[in-house]
Amino acid sequence: MPTLLPLGQRPPLLRMNHVDKVFNGNIVALRDMTLDVNQGDFISLLGPSGCGKSTALRVIADLLHPTRGKVEWEGAHGLGDLGVVFQEPTLMPWATVAQNVWLPYRLRGNSYSSVRDEVRESLRLVGLENFLDAYPRELSGGMKMRVSIARAMVTNPRLILMDEPFAALDEITRHKLNNDLLKLKAKIGCTVIFVTHSVFESVFLSDRIIVMAARPGRVLREVQVDAPYPRDEDFRTSAGYAAHTRAASEALKEAMGEPA
Prior knowledge:
- By secondary structure, the protein is an alpha/beta fold.
- It has a domain at 12-91 and 158-255: P-loop containing nucleotide triphosphate hydrolases (Rossmann fold, 3-Layer(aba) Sandwich), CATH 3.40.50.
- The chain has 8 helices and 9 strands.
- It has helices at 53-60, 97-107, 112-125, 141-153, 171-188, 199-205, 233-236, 239-255; strands at 12-23, 27-38, 42-46, 68-73, 82-85, 159-163, 191-196, 208-212, 219-224.
- β1 and β2 (27-38) form a beta hairpin.
- α2 packs across α3 and α3 (112-125) crosses α4.
- The termini are far apart.
- The relative contact order is 0.18.
């Protein structure tokens, strides 16, 4: 299991450098968005609806091009360095679970037989090793999201981007997947940028919470969560968790223009 360095000692991974994103010539989604991402960070983007969290994620993923500024990776950057998990699992309904997880390799020209072990290991890590031949229609919502996570991490990327992946799930399933996500991150040693509307989720998962201002989106404040990993239910009921939640809530109120 990779060792996680303390905040302030982690080498850089990428930087959003003074990024603007304007749609249709006059809708300013991001303005002067600057964010340093370091190796091993778990960063949550938290802010009001429409503040540009998902836009920032898509700019990092190169699904959207900045109007101004750029995203700068430290060192060489290739397709296998990035995994993306959207709010909906976006699975191919005609393909089995294993075939869905194989997709990133398939797009790179790798046959299934050549990466069978990687696909199986990825599914084992999310607890679905017995569902290789199942189809999405046979899975629960939480299981579908696990497949999506397995697909995102099958190539062992340096960075995983997650856009509100658990928002549509019930609270029990959401808590379970939060726990599992932290275990997965620890095992593969990746960096995560996670979009959420939930203060509670952001505090439980993250060591850095980036609170974004309302449109145009930009970094308003950073809240660091210095609680050690691994985190469990004891952390959720601790005084430290409550204190970090209050700090994030106050920053979010500021972002929404409300008195703290």
